[in-house]
Write a structure and sequence with these properties.
- Helix 2 packs across helix 5.
- Helices cover 72% and strands 0% of the residues.
- The model has no long low-confidence stretch (mean pLDDT 86).
- The protein contains 6 helices and no strands.
- The two termini are 35 Å apart.
- By secondary structure, it is mainly α.
Length: 224
């Protein structure tokens, strides 16, 4: 029971985020209005995605140094979880854009396009894994590609958009996380939300990894 304390913390933090995010006081800002509450969901999802994908990349590096099935599975399942969080981030971001920018998607915005391309790159990672029948070859090539995907995604998400004009906060002179859009009251919800979504990503990865190992054991018993 003591080992699962962080799962209870995850539930508490996400419940707190949902309730406080929908009901707590938020600053009345032009254009954003009530949509600023999406900050508690959209942005923490991206934070959690980045952390989980970083973990996946580290597992891939470790696999190339010491090839084991465990490291390959952990890298793969972490990447899948990161993609889920990334897609949720895209959906919540698109919804936010609809009510603040007037469109579900702004084709000229570098951050939106960069995020979409990053998800496509990771989608190709999943396709690549399914194209190999040899387990060792699949694991090795997947590990190399996973490192490449991470190296490509980070600039697309966090570096290139800051070098260009964008409607998105934190790019092209458009400040993000300033007193304009994140006051002290919002920080009381925002930071717990980041922790909660990150822990949820860890939880999902743990469950999916255990299921994968279980399937492998069942398959090995069937062959025996």
């Amino acid at each position: 029971m003591k080992k699962n304390w962080w799962k209870a913390l995850t539930v508490i933090l996400l419940l707190y985020t949902a309730v406080a995010g929908l009901l707590a006081h938020v600053p009345r800002l032009a254009i954003l209005n009530e949509t600023i509450r999406n900050l508690y969901f959209h942005v923490p999802m991206w934070f959690a995605m980045t952390i989980i994908l970083t973990t996946s990349m580290i597992y891939s590096i470790r696999y190339l140094r010491t090839p084991t099935n465990r490291l390959d599975v952990l890298a793969h399942e972490s990447a899948k979880t990161g993609m889920v969080l990334g897609i949720l981030g895209l959906l919540t971001g698109s919804t936010w854009a609809r009510f603040t920018w007037g469109a579900w998607w702004v084709a000229s915005d570098p951050r939106l396009n960069g995020a979409a391309i990053a998800m496509l790159i990771y989608g190709a990672y999943l396709v690549l894994r399914s194209s190999f029948t040899d387990e060792q070859q699949r694991a090795r090539v997947s590990a190399i590609y996973n490192i490449f995907a991470y190296a490509a995604a980070i600039p697309l998400l966090f570096i290139l958009p800051r070098m260009q004009d964008s409607l998105h906060p934190g790019a092209g002179g458009n400040p993000g996380f300033s007193k304009y859009d994140l006051d002290n009251n919002m920080r009381l919800v925002f930071y717990p939300a980041v922790i909660g979504w990150t822990l949820l990503g860890v939880w999902i990865t743990q469950v999916s990894t255990r299921l994968t190992f279980l399937k492998q054991k069942i398959y090995e018993k069937q062959l025996a």
